Amino acid sequence: MPSTAAPDVSESSIQAAKDKLNAHVAEIVRWHFDPATGSPFWLERAKSFDFDPMTEVNTYQDLDKFGFFQDEWLRGGPVRRWVPKAFAESPIYTFETGGSTGVPKSRINVNDFRIDYENFSETLPDESFPRRADWLHVGPSGPRRLRLAIEHLAQHRGGMCFMVDLDPRWVIKLIKGRQMDQMEAYKRHVIDQALTLLRAHPGIECLFTTPKLLEALCEKVSLKSMGIKGVFCGGTEMTPQFHRFAVEELLDGIYFAPTYGNTLMGLATHKIPVDPADNYAIIYYPPAPRAMIEVVNPDQPDQLVEYGKTGRVRLTTLTKEFFMPRFLERDEAERERPCGAYPWDGVRNVRPFSKFATTVVEGVY
User: Is 88 helix (H, G, I), strand (E, B) or coil?
Assistant: First the structure.
């Protein structure tokens, strides 16, 4: 049988990761369907199942029994139906998705955003994201978890985080209304605030922003001359072309960490170390076993595509706070082989799903 792995990862590592994932699935499913710990949503849905989640879901493949998680379940309330009983007395955060397609989807959080970004922190090199350095966040905040997550990342690494807010919902309205002059004025307003903070606070050495805002910042100033050592960048406009542009032209040797994440999944990490043979492809690996990303046949979404082939992104989230099996994202990508650092499937060059692309406005992401 041909290997499913890249040359730098062993089949035994892949099998060990699968075993860990299966054990994690069993633990999380039992948690969410135990009347003492589970969420009202899943405990109620269990009444309609023709199987017992507590005894008949023991592997990742067994999650197929739940069918596909529906987008509309997360739109509107009551949001408390998603709070597991085990967290009933805990302070609850509620975070929203982008909101570009109607009523925003909501996800509750207790500690997931902290755990996700503490894990991500381990992938950042200290020489480029120095411990005790301060951060600047230039991007969406408001109802999204991103603001608190980046702030926690900075604090976890011993720094403080300065903030410049971007309201993408307003930008989308301006673009849909063809008010491009106002959109450009708003972008200048955001960039001017960022430049003011960079000039006023020499302790800022790390930056989070989106691709389009990064380009706009670099048109105004050399980030290297401002003391920035590392850039953590995410957004829907992240492409191989932008990756090359950022590394070869915009950043003058500053470390560039592209990422893919959202409120429902958490944060996927770019393939490390960077391989020149990948030709600036954006290759991400999910934070297994807490979340898994797969690439499936759009017409038969219960079937994976072959490695290297294009399909729709399917997400499964598996934490004690949130259980979301088999959710079809509004993205497409190529299926990527496991690698040494991440012995499970990844995705290459994530972009808006082609069947939806004409209906989605990305704004200044």
Answer: coil
Calculate the alpha carbon distances from 55 to 58, 129, 318 in Å: 7, 45, 17
Model confidence over 195-235: pLDDT tens digits? 999 999 999 999 999 999 999 999 999 999 999 999 999 87
DSSP structure string for 107-158: EEESSHHHHHHHHHHTTS-TTTS-TT-EEEEEEE-TTSSHHHHHHHHHHHTT
Using an 8 Å Cβ cutoff, are 316 and 63 in contact?
yes
For residues 128 and 228, give the distance between their C-alpha atoms in angstroms, rounded to a whole number: 9
Structure-block tokens of residue 12: 């035994």
Q: Three-state SS for 22? A: helix
**Second CATH level (architecture) for the domain 91-356:** 3-Layer(aba) Sandwich (3.40)
How many beta carbons lie within 10 A of that of residue 56, not counting itself? 12
Per-residue pLDDT of 139-168, as tens digits, reads 988 788 888 999 999 999 999 999 999 998
**Pick from 184, 186, 204: which is nearest to 196 by CA?**
204
* pTM of the complete model: 0.92
